Amino acid sequence: MTLIVGGRAHHRATDPVARILDISRGAVKGDLRTEIVEGLQADPAQLPSLLLWDDDGLRLFNRLAQSEPYYLGRKEGEILKKHVAAIAAQIPAGTVIIELGCGDLYKTRLILSALEQQRRAVSYLALDVSAQELSASLDALEQEFVGAAYVDIRGLHGTYDDCVHWIAQGAPLRKHVTFLWMGNSMTNGGFDGAQSVLRDAAAACKRSGLGAQFLVSCDACQDPVRLMAAYDAAALPLRDFILHGLDSANRVLGRIVFQPADWTVYTQYDAKHSMVDVSYTPIRELVFHVEDGRPPVSLQPGAKVRAITSGKWSPQQMDAVAHGAHLQIERTWMDDDQIYGRCNDILGGLDDAS
């Protein structure tokens, strides 16, 4: 198998460097700095969630994902293990699969293995903002698929926005793209954020003459007890993962602004909006300058600075998200307990939206 990149064929065995295409536009750090400064002045205050997803953050998240109360990964794996053949059957032969975030390699392997068994020739592109994590993920996947006849594995280094821009500018892809958006990641930006990514990706494909579909997952659990156990602010895996974001913010700002010892983590389930909010919260009064020329930031003990959100969307809410992006849900699979998981085959077609 080969994948045409930049006008010529690159073979995995003879051209290992070309297995990762850098599509980043080089503005991530500058954008993050602006988001940090403006987010602390916003109401409610927040820090960009992208601060959590560097190499160290991904390793800390993997520890959280393996903890017993954190059911999301296990439930998604349960769905895939039970239904992977049916799910793979919805992915057309000849498609380019773009996974938005490297995700859980176990789940990716299940899907790609099913495609190999079904003899569906596909090119898989893992997208990630962390070059180190992306390279490690590709190393592991390539070892699993040595000698594969139908699955080609490569990587894209960049953000979601970089990927959409790359496709819209005429990326050398085949006639069809299947986006994998697993791990409940689509809910992190709320309803508007999810609709925006779905709509923009579909529009970019349309602009480039490509068909598109989305295989996404969404946590449907709305049990407060189970949710608060999974996102327990007192548990070390979550605390370490979230507070790491403050170290990342210091690196972006180029100096020590946040002392992690001055902060703790707070979790709240917002039933009205079907969201779990995880926040940084100071344990004492803090006054600090983030940027010259701006007034100092003053925070009282217990103030909330949002770190990340995780949606818990019912089937009706998920349908509304798809509809708002001018898409429709074709198929749904759920776990046996019906608390997680919806792997949805979302196809364009409600209207001829651009």
Walkthrough of the structure:
By secondary structure, this protein is α/β, with parallel strands linked by helices. It folds into 2 domains: 116 residues, no CATH class; 183 residues, Vaccinia Virus protein VP39 (Rossmann fold, 3-Layer(aba) Sandwich), CATH 3.40.50. Strands 3-6-5-4-7-8-15-14 form an 8-stranded mixed sheet, with helices on both faces. Helix 2 packs antiparallel against helix 9, helix 3 runs parallel beside helix 4 and helix 6 runs parallel beside helix 7. The longest helix has 18 residues. It is globular. The relative contact order is 0.16.
CATH H-level superfamily title of the largest domain: Vaccinia Virus protein VP39
* CATH structural architecture of the largest domain: 3-Layer(aba) Sandwich
Secondary-structure-based class equals alpha/beta
Strands, total number: 15
What's the overall geometry? globular
- The residue ranges in which pLDDT falls below 50 over 5 or more consecutive positions are 1-17, 350-354
Mean pLDDT level: 87
Give Rg in angstroms.
Answer: 20 Å
From the N-terminal CA to the C-terminal CA, the straight-line distance is 33 Å
Task: Look at the structure and give the CATH class of the largest domain.
Answer: Alpha Beta
CATH-defined topology of the largest domain: Rossmann fold
Total DSSP helices: 10
Q: In sequence order, what are the helices and strands, one letter per element?
A: EEEHHHEHEHEHEHEHHEEEEEHEE
Helix content: 25-40%
Keywords: Methyltransferase, S-adenosyl-L-methionine, Transferase
Organism: Aspergillus candidus
Domain Histidine-specific methyltransferase SAM-dependent: 33-341
Family: Belongs to the methyltransferase superfamily.
